[in-house]
Amino acid sequence: MKTRFPVLLLPLIITSLATPALAETVVEGPVQAEVIRVVDGDTILVSAKPWPQQSIEVFVRLRGIDTPELKSRCETGRQAAEAARDALESMIADTSEIKLTHISADKYFGRIVADVALEDGTNPAAKLLAAGLGARYSGHGRKFDLCRDE
User: Fold this and answer.
1) Which end of the chain is more exposed for a tag (fewer CB within 10 A), N or C?
2) Where in the sequence is the signal peptide annotated (predicted)?
3) 18, 78, 103, 125, 139 from 32: Cα distances, Å
4) Domains and CATH numbers, the chain
């Protein structure tokens, strides 16, 4: 007599395998970090200090904003990207440490997404948005593209 046991378990196995991909792990923080460099208008490289006497270099995407890409296909996009990068560099220049909160994995391996706060509590993503140097971005959907109409 054949058993139907494996067939009955198949949906359960498939569901359990898919669950980790659907669940997002979030580290609330705060995690102290030193900025190593500004990559572009919405990404920085930091030396994060998640535990005493431990540090890790990681790329951090600022949560909630998308700025034009430095390698945009049009001059307008490249100029806007440089303006966003320069503004972020200016904000970060006067701070020695930042705080990362609500930290989660990014869609690109090796990069995280986080809320970033400067020493004075300023959120650089919010300042960039207020200055018109980027667009709100949830991590899904179309990205900010100034070259779309050119």
Assistant:
1) N
2) 1-23
3) 33, 31, 12, 17, 24
4) 24-136 (2.40.50.90)
Measure the CA–CA gap between 45 and 79, rounded to whole angstroms: 22
Local structure of residue 26 (DSSP, 8 states): E
What pLDDT is attached to residue 119?
Answer: 94
The position carrying tokens 């898919």 is 18
Q: What confidence score (pLDDT) does residue 125 get?
A: 97
Nearest one of 141, 110, 144, 142 to 125, comparing CA atoms = 144
Closest among 33, 29, 31, 30 to 96, alpha carbons compared: 33
- The span from the CA of 5 to the CA of 145, in Å, is 52
Helix (H) or strand (E) holding 136, with range, is: strand 135-136
pLDDT at 126: 97
User: Cβ distance 84 to 105 under 8 Å?
Assistant: no
- What token pair was written down for 30? 């705060």
Query: How many Cα neighbours within 13 Å face the side chain of 21?
Result: 5
